[in-house]
Amino acid sequence: MITLSNEEKVLKNFINGEWMDVAERENVYNPADGKEFLEVPNSDAAAMDQAVEAARIAQKDWALVPAPQRAEILYKIGAIMKKKKERLSQLLTLENGKVIEEARGEVQEGIDMAFYMAGEGRRLFGQTTPAELKDKFAMSQRHPVGVVGIITPWNFPIAIATWKTFPAMVAGNTVIWKPSSETPMMASELAKIFKEAGLPKGVVNVVYGSGATIGQAMIEQEAIRVISFTGSNETGRKVATECGKQLKKVSLEMGGKNAVIVMEDADIDLAVEGILWSAFGTSGQRCTACSRVIVHKDVREILEKRLLEEMKGLTIGDGLDTKNKVGPIINQAGLDKILKYMEIGKEEGAKLLAGGKQLTVKNYEKGFYFEPTLFTDVTIDMRIAQEEVFGPVVSLIEVNDFEEAIAVNNKVKYGLSSSIYTQNVNRVFKAQRDLDTGIVYVNAGTTGAEIHLPFGGTKGTGNGHRDSGVQALDVFTEWKAVYVDYSGKLQRAQIDTDA
């Protein structure tokens, strides 16, 4: 069991390479037992002003560092993260609650992102193109935007931060990061790693505080030209509105209502495995979690039976115990929201097959636990089939054929991830084309995105930008077109041509 020193239990802002104490603090609770174990700063807007000034000054020099040299620091960061992987993983479970196996996977994702984006330091490709006039050269280049602000959620406190921070850094930007106060420790640990790796002062700054104060101050800062936000649809809309008033670039990732489609020719055992992992991993607290199963009428009964059998074997408890497969919900507010949807589902006529209750797990009576839950007889118009519950809750929706399955999948306001289990290759290619989500899985669940492909979705999930993959650079760079005329005379494009 990992232990923290008294000094480690009191977090500080990280501004211009220094640890800055804040008088006002809030307690952080371990979701596994409900006990206080950390204090996190509740900063005021003045702290954001300090961070912006540090980032603004540092960015001028950082942008002039050759991109391959910026990348070398990212390689060092990745190597340090790899060396400290187990400690980071245990700390992540301590503050977030996810089981240690998943925490290790999340830390590995951050390591992978460091190495992947470091590779972009020797690419950052633009294009060269033939000019339409003689003795003229034409090309495009990527350039940093300047100072960027990132706002990250509690459910992936290290992975999502690296999706945003690392491409911003390698592209020559400086960063101000507002982590979630529910899971603040990963930000502090990453800041220590940045310092150990030799990242210049002011390139990354961490400011803790509420969304109403620090998030709002970040958005209002004129010097911050990009906001990259992951969180709720409601908050994301507000962020977009405020940024739009300032013509500020904004990248939004705002959740999903993801479905696994199980056709009559599916490998049922494989589908059950994928559903269990996608629905109950991270206790359903992923934006890519499976919360709907769209099942062909011919295999509904057997799928229900197999799911119920396998759900009985899911062990629930403290994520640091390797025997457990399902950890706690993040806090009481998260539990209350899930409980509310239990009543909504039953009132709408859905049949509760399993779960549906808050748990008191032995030795963790004060923890925030909820039973893995399965509803059936769900129709597409029900709220539990439309709204993001963000917990270990799955709704089964029966369909008659492939076409109806696609239509049901698409009839929600979100468009993040989708999955289909089938042995029919024609259906596979039609599903790839017709499922209206940013991520599509075939014969796998709805979770498991890899860092070298773009992450994000359509409709209410986002606003067209992507985290991860080379596409993440688009958020943090501006395109510049460059023309070099070496003719020694005035040449006028579109006019002085032979056409």
Shape: globular
Number of helices: 14
Strand percentage lies at 15-25%
Largest sheet: 7 strands, mixed
- For the largest sheet, list the strands in their spatial order: 14-17-18-13-12-20-21
CATH structural class of the largest domain: Alpha Beta
CATH superfamily annotation of the largest domain:
Aldehyde Dehydrogenase, Chain A, domain 1
Query: Remind me, CATH topology of the largest domain?
Result: Aldehyde Dehydrogenase, Chain A, domain 1
Average pLDDT rating: 97
Helicity level: 25-40%
End-to-end C-alpha gap: 75 Å
* Total DSSP E strands: 23
Pairing-aware structural class of the strands and helices?
A: alpha/beta
Q: Number of folding domains?
A: 2
Describe the structure.
The structure is a single chain. With 499 residues, the protein is an alpha/beta fold. It has helices at residues 45-62, 67-83, 85-96, 100-120, 159-170, 185-196, 211-220, 233-245, 268-280, 300-311, 332-347, 402-410, 425-434, 473-476, and strands at residues 13-15, 18-20, 25-29, 36-41, 127-130, 136-144, 147-151, 174-178, 204-206, 224-230, 249-253, 258-262, 290-296, 351-354, 358-361, 364-370, 373-376, 393-399, 414-415, 417-421, 439-442, 458-459, 477-485. The strands form 7 sheets. It has a 7-stranded mixed beta sheet, with helices on both faces. The protein has a 5-stranded parallel beta sheet with strand order 9-8-7-10-11, sandwiched between helices. Strands 5-6-23 form a 3-stranded antiparallel beta sheet. Helix 1 (45-62) crosses helix 7, helix 2 runs antiparallel to helix 4 (100-120) and helix 3 packs across helix 4 (100-120). The radius of gyration is 24 Å and the shape is globular. The model has no long low-confidence stretch (mean pLDDT 97).
